[in-house]
């Protein structure tokens, strides 16, 4: 006796129904609140069903995770599937009448469970790690966007006080996220901080700056910076308002840069525990940044039965445009997959070009 439990998850509650083969309804759709009591009662009910039971829900952001965890802790078979698979599976849907409701979606998921019974993958501890990795990757990209915005804003402010300061050094980003030009403008935020104190004084202060931040001191660099500052046109003088704006921006930028590097470190630690880590990291162009991102966005690669499935998942598969005698052999990529995965793949490919 097979019990297919379909769960349509939404924010704070879920709609649940139980079906058996031949269209038998064990229990009509009912609502469960995402609370300790509500999930406990749901798990107890599902666990009391006679026969073999499998629970399926769609991956809906983070809303499904409390429900998923409750069934995992109880040792009940549970699987989280891509909503697109359920949407396109409903072959008996009447195209003339569109029904969109939580009970209807729960029944649709339960029907999918019965039809795909033998092909369902049980959620495992590795899937939990991959979920954590993808969450970190999402936060990583979010903070990167904030960093880019803050950096552009800082450059815009410096155009008024110290034009071109962001191009004075070519030192790479440090492991803690700090950059030399940003540290430099924190100490010398206006061109007048350089040219109006004289070369000797500036050389001493620049040497102290290098020592304080751990940068190598080059004896010819102070004169180069000093001479360059004399040719700059600063729109505003040494005004305390602009100083506060620049220093505040730098503080925020330093904080976010440090968090980004912490995300990068944690992602690499999590990715290291996955079985595909060595294979992915051995790929040319993949390093400690792109490797974990690639694993986070692809997920469990074993769920793809052939390579074209991975291509379609990424949305880089060529579309098909054929009608009658017309058959276009060159078509654009479908772009139906995850945009962040395509971005990561593009960044990796730039190292090969």
UniProtKB/TrEMBL annotation:
Domain Transposase IS116/IS110/IS902 C-terminal: 279-351
GO biological process, one term: DNA transposition
MF (Gene Ontology): DNA binding; transposase activity
InterPro entries in UniProt: Transp_IS110-like_N, Transpos_IS110, Transposase_20
Transposase IS110-like N-terminal domain boundaries: 5-163
Entries under NCBIfam families matching the protein: transpos_IS110
Name listed for the protein in its UniProt record: Transposase
């Amino acid at each position: 006796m097979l019990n297919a439990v379909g769960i349509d998850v939404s924010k704070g509650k879920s709609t649940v129904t139980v079906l058996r083969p031949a269209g038998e309804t064990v229990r009509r759709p009912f609502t469960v609140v995402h609370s300790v009591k509500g999930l406990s009662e749901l798990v107890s009910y599902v666990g009391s069903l006679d026969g073999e039971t499998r629970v399926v829900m769609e991956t809906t952001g983070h809303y499904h995770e409390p429900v998923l965890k409750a069934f995992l802790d109880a040792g009940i078979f549970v699987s989280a599937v891509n909503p697109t698979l359920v949407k396109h599976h409903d072959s008996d849907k009447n195209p003339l009448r569109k029904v969109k409701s939580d009970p209807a979606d729960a029944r649709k998921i339960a029907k999918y469970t019965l039809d795909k019974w033998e092909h369902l993958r049980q959620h495992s501890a590795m899937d939990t790690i991959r979920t954590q990795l993808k969450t970190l990757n999402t936060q990583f990209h979010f903070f990167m966007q904030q960093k880019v915005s803050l950096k552009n804003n800082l450059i815009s402010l410096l155009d008024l006080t110290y034009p071109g300061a962001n191009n004075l050094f070519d030192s790479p980003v440090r492991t803690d996220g700090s950059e030399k030009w940003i540290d430099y403008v924190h100490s010398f935020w206006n061109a007048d901080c350089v040219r109006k104190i004289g070369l000797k004084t500036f050389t001493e202060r620049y040497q102290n700056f290098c020592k304080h931040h751990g940068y190598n001191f080059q004896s010819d660099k102070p004169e180069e910076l000093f001479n360059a500052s004399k040719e700059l046109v600063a729109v505003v003088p040494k005004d305390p308002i602009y100083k506060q704006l620049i220093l505040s921006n730098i503080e925020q930028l330093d904080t976010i840069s440090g968090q980004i590097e912490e995300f990068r470190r944690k992602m690499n630690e999590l990715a290291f525990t996955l079985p595909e880590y060595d294979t992915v990291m051995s790929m040319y162009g993949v390093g400690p940044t792109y490797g974990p991102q690639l694993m986070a966005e692809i997920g469990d690669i074993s769920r793809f039965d052939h390579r074209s499935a991975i291509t379609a998942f990424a949305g880089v598969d060529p579309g098909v445009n054929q009608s009658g005698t017309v058959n276009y052999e060159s078509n654009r990529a479908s772009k139906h997959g995850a945009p962040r995965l395509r971005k990561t793949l593009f960044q990796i490919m730039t190292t090969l070009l």
